[in-house]
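HUMAN: Forgive my ignorance: could you write out one protein's sequence and backbone structure tokens?

ASSISTANT:
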Amino acid sequence: MSLRHLLDTSSLSRQDALAILDTAEEMAAVSSREVKKLPTLRGRTVVNLFYEDSTRTRVSFETAAKRLSADVVNFSAKGSSVSKGESLKDTVQTLEAMGADAIVIRHGASGAAAQLAASDWTEAAVINAGDGTHEHPTQALLDALTLRRGWCPAHGRPPRGGDLAGMKVLIVGDILHSRVARSNVWLLTTLGAEVSLAAPATLLPKGISDWPVTVHHSLDAALAADPDAVMMLRIQAERMGGAYFPHAAEYTRRWGLTDERLTVLQQLQMGGTSEPALLLHPGPMNRGVEISAAAADSPQAKILDQVAHGVAVRMAVLHLLLSQNHDDGSTA
């Protein structure tokens, strides 16, 4: 793999994406052992630099780094010098002076990770853990791994290994504010999947017609197209400055994966030749809003698998970025 940084999926090649996924398969096997440790990054330091609150992503990166025997420094903007006005540059240069080998950054500003990678502030590998409404590449990679491991296509191709050619993936909800949706659209398309979106018109970004997707303005019509996987997104109220839909109950009625829609989806696929659709959610979930409890807890749901695969994917990314020669300076 030729990457120095992991900043997005829009420029991630199919070859590099598959290299990460294949390495993650190996890391998943390590995570299932009694001793979940590898000496790969012994002596290296990984800094989690989080300017936004996070539980799953930060803990996942911390777990991944520790399983590779790296030293981990968790840096939260709250209660730090950042709250006193310290700039990103000064913070990063301080971490550089402490010997950071990789900086995992989550920031509210789109492009913050790319700015850091392009600067001369640090020689560390930069991993984007979510920047504004731009991208969240490791989330898309763990989603792709979950889909690849859970999919049993009708034509008999093994569910593990290879790409996602021919898989139909439906992403539902707040596309406008979702960096997860953007990263998944680019990555899944690169891997050969057919991606569809379903959302209120007010929650679709400008320029959506230029995306390599099919857009549905009815969730029921989108589900009737018999997707192989459905990814539900939460409403990101913290990024909203206005009214994008009347109220939560109305949103659930039109765009939620309710018990009734789950039944319809199951009956549709029981009547055909396809396997039950995989159900994904990047979390945190708002049960009863975008997804019902029955759907979230159904056998089709791979939500906890996503969490487990997140550790394997982030182990793979850290391993690949820090175990290679970075002289070429390429990024993704």
In short: The domain at 137-304 is CATH 3.40.50.1370 (Rossmann fold). The beta strands are 45-50, 71-76, 102-107, 125-131, 168-172, 194-198, 214-216, 229-232, 278-280. The two ends are 11 Å apart (CA to CA). DSSP finds eleven helices and nine strands in the chain.
